[in-house]
Amino acid sequence: MDSELRLGVFLCDCGNTLSKAIDFSTIKTDLENLPDVTYVNISHDLCLETAQKAMQKDIEDKGVNRVVVAACSPELYEKGLISVIQAAGVNPHLLSIANIREQCFWAHPDKTKAAKKATTQIKLALNRARFLEPVEKTRIPVNRDVLVIGGGIVGIEAALELSNLNLKTTLIEKEAILGGKLNQFPNLYPLQVNPEEMLAARLKDITERQNIDVLTSAELIDVNGEVGNFSARIKESNEEVVRNFGAIIFASGYNTQFSSQIYGFELSNNIITQSKLEEILKFSSEVKEIPKSVCFIVDVSGEHSRVSTLSALRNALGIKEKFGSEVCILCRNLKIDGAGLEKLYRDCRNNGVLFIKFDHLPEISKQNGKIKIEVEDVLVSEEQVSISYDLLVVEETSVPPPDSRFLSSALNIGLDTQGFYQENNIHLYPTASNREGIFFAGNCHADLDLMRALTEASNVALNAYQLLAQEKITVEAERVIVDPNKCRFCLTCIRACPHHAIREVEVDHEKMAAQIVDLACQGCGICAVVCPAKAIKCKDGSDEQILSELEPFGEHV
Amino acid sequence: MKIKGAFSPDIIAFCCAQSAYQAADTAGSMRISYPENIRVIRVPCVGRVDVLHILRAFERGADGVLVLGCHDEACHHLSGNTRAKNRVQKANTLLQEIGIDGKRVEMFTLAPNQGSRFARIANEVNERIKELGPSPVKSAD
After folding, report:
1. Which of A60, A217, A279, B32 has the most neighbouring CB atoms within 10 Å?
2. For A478-538, which CATH class?
3. CB contact under 8 A, B39 and A116
């Protein structure tokens, strides 16, 4: 980089709206007298293309190598301005923005005070500009294969989508056959189409694909490396194989479990689980003793209750149709948010299914071979109701797959409080993990019904494709750097990095040091703070840049 | 020297670019006013804020420091906000030891759309620092 600083300042008065409050021309002369300031320009609309073209020309003509902009919030036009300075041949990281609109004039009604603050902000942005450092881009070759863990319907769908996108996919399944939960409980998933047929069609499709490799009775043991270059150890029927992938998709699903602790009783011949009921309904012609009255209880254990609620609704209808029994559903909060589900609920009601809402778990006991339920009806009477049924169908709790705890620590990916995989941000990045290149789909991380899970499978395939669409990924190189001479290799940063983006490398004969993986780094700067030797430097938000904004204070301006 | 009644403290707010900085923008966009002596510094994540940065702010004449990050369990970088919380506590004790009221450093969490919360925090903290008076570092000059 050139040693000489040539600062270019662009002041924008937001279509003349700010010029009433602040006199840009005095600021301009003021700034022009400061050292290293090469050029100061007043614009009215830096967000518009014409002004941006002029800005680009000014930068080129005046040989500006650091750009300071005083305008609206960087959240709005930072990206646009970056492309302008990039077009003018200035590194995108050499831009410093003073937010004088949202955080000055719009927030402070006192115009003189706001103008004073704006002047300070502009000077601070100038200060910061002196410490900015360029970051170059580089292209890193990536492995374009994808690993999908879990051969349930979500894993299958994701693999098919990836195959459509021309990415070679390896699908691994713990069991001997593909299909997952849909094999056991087709009725668990309310659909217009028959889930068994849907699964069969997909299984047929998957065998015909050249670029899908299916490994059954296989388990993931460990993963090394980072996004673009993961190397996974897979145990396939007692044999261990190592394969390389660019991205990993978890679609490992969930397990169900009856927890007697929640209910305070054990299962018996007239207290059965929903999956047992599925079996009974599957072979309904063989049932000898038809229960005259059936009661379902759902939503006993918190968040993950969408699937069990839908299953209860569907099976309640099924029992009505097949046996004509009296059916009641005890629920805390009926989750029927999805296409066609409101209709399912109405059908239940129209067919005479009774719904009772509870706040506190009902008291359940056995009396004369029947199930006696005492529940406070919170909706209608607000009184204790005592009812008795022939058969009680209890909800099973969704639990994470047994290996999720082990895999989360082996791969350094987060789990939520219930032990399911934790998305990076449930609203903004619902399928991303905390690690770049590792994604979640389906019920291994969220409570989804089948339609939602299938949508997510397609989304996650697109996420992986976005990453691996090209042979090489363009990435900013050395945005964060470790000085190997200062690094004492204490591993603090490696442990602290939330994205698993720091690896160990041998720098010199036997001297080890930490190294940032550019592809995986998300630039949070946590490592730079925890490093006891101060060996790590973030070029975006370095100590110097942050401290430069602390001056000047108050009257010292 | 300024008169005590007119004391307007210099307050530095380290703001997470993912949440608090945007909350400050939201406050401006909604024209919710807060004291202009609060100065925002944008950091990629509050996990980037070091105890050193907080202490340096006092060294350079700040009367109060705010660290504003994402809500608990909502940090894009998982542990950034909890780390910041610990560092703020550390800074509290360090300041207390050298005779500066530890209450001059505070951490709050907010979401990008909580413009009014940002303004409320700014107003409250401004009042609290006013009560405490100018930082002893300043008067030592």
Report:
1. B32
2. alpha beta
3. no
